Amino acid sequence: MLKVYKSSARPSEVSSQALGIFVFEGKIEESLKELEGLGKRVKKQAEHEHFTGKKESMLKVTFPEGPIPRVFLVGLGQESKARIDDYRVAAAIITKAALESHAGELYLYSPKINPPISQALAEGALLGAYRFDRYKTDGRKEEGKRGIDDLYIINGDDDDIERGVLFACGQNYARDLANEPPNLVNPATLAKAAVDLAEDMGLECEIYDEVELERMGMNALLAVGRGSANPPRLIHLTYKPSSRPLKKIALVGKGLTFDSGGLDIKTSENMRTMKGDKTGACVVLGAMRSLVKLDLPMEVHALIGAVENMPSGSSYKPDDIIKTYTGKTIEIDNTDAEGRVTMADVLGFASKLNPSCMVDIATLTGGCAVALGPYRAGIFANDQALCNALLDASSFTGEMLWQLPMDDERLRKRLDSPFADVANSAGRYGSAITAAMFLREFVPEDIPWAHIDIAGVSYYKEPFGYYSSGISGFGTRTILQWLYRLQ
Ligand code: BES
Ligand code: MN
Ligand code: ZN
């Protein structure tokens, strides 16, 4: 595993297998002046290659005989426009390049390194180095093992670095678990992963199986799992601080270990990547894993409905009417709108814990991706202060969020059912909004609640920035940053 340290070495004194240097556009001198002789030679190369520090540009310069055989220059773009996330992306670009050139050790030097920047650099490096290759048998895995062992951030801040490592490891844990294929991670094995996590981190853990769920009246969660040979589980993890908690937070994650659509079956194109429908759950678990070490003064509960949505003779059906855990009834309009049905029971259960606030995260609607594009998640809330706090955290983590409205009463009417309290789908138009309005039905008005729809951002086919191909783990760091600032 890549370890990250601060270094107090002067850049000109560094002797290492690789050095990464951050450059603002047009300000290469500023980045190289502390490097003395080496700096002059690097500058010549940069001029020759027309490297000026444009955002996301990279130049590799090698000195096979020197004390630093590989120097990587990475562009941050114009200084006045550079944002904190640009540092993460730049750190990821350098880390990937250093990995490719088989460096076992890497130093990072940024001329500007005020506090939060070292957190971002540690995050970018660890996120950028991530890949999901444990099932590759062709030796790539072995090669990966010979990756970077030690990363040094010159003039970094110890606490910032530690937090960056913690947040990125939480996100990488979420990625690892959500990237697991659906033949290996089903509701029971997802629950097992939660049990292992709880044991490792000293969390309380309760798993409810299908028999207990029946007894509890978790009929919505059970209905969605009815068609599968792998029955559902409810996962409940609890973090308790050492002193009397100031607040009680509930985190709820959608844990569809596979979403075939059920009887309203998806097309083969749309079904592909639906192993990722458990990402919300994995993000919640990743956040739980990391928050333990933040030493937070509040109690945090994680609640996950783990379930597989499959078509079969025992599947739940369109027209079914289900009595949920809260007592409210749902008429099924579309079995592919299963996430909200499972979340109805889990949000209801979480509300009974009487939390001071509740945040759920879910790959809920393709409509959210249509509305906001593939790089920004939607956020909905019944409490503007909670929403603002999450938006604020997200502007630091680079996990972009955009608030969508839930105040359109006419749109809400489309969820009315002639036979039950609410229908589970209201058609294509505004589907991210109607899905959020559906969830709202299962949250008491006096509990501040926010819902984050990550359907568009949870899975990337092509790598970019600090994301590899596959699950992004989007949301993990925003939840952690929000909790960290809340204390
Ligand atoms: N898991 C999907 C949403 C999704 C789509 C996640 C694409 C990731 C990528 C969800 O269960 C679903 O199928 N939603 C439907 C709802 C519709 C039937 C009302 C959708 O968004 O099309
Ligand atoms: Mn679905
Ligand atoms: Zn789904």
TrEMBL record:
Keywords (A to Z) from UniProt: Aminopeptidase, Cytoplasm, Hydrolase, Manganese, Metal-binding, Protease
Cofactor note: Binds 2 manganese ions per subunit.
Location of the Cytosol aminopeptidase domain: 334-341
Gene Ontology, cellular component aspect: cytoplasm
Descriptive protein name: Probable cytosol aminopeptidase
Record EC number: 3.4.11.1, 3.4.11.10
An example Gene Ontology biological process: proteolysis
Function of the protein: Presumably involved in the processing and regular turnover of intracellular proteins. Catalyzes the removal of unsubstituted N-terminal amino acids from various peptides.
Binding site for Mn(2+) 2: K254, D259, D277, E338
Cellular compartment(s): Cytoplasm
Active site: K266, R340
A matching Pfam family: Peptidase_M17
Annotated binding of Mn(2+) 1, by residue: D259, D336, E338
The species this protein was found in: Acetomicrobium hydrogeniformans ATCC BAA-1850
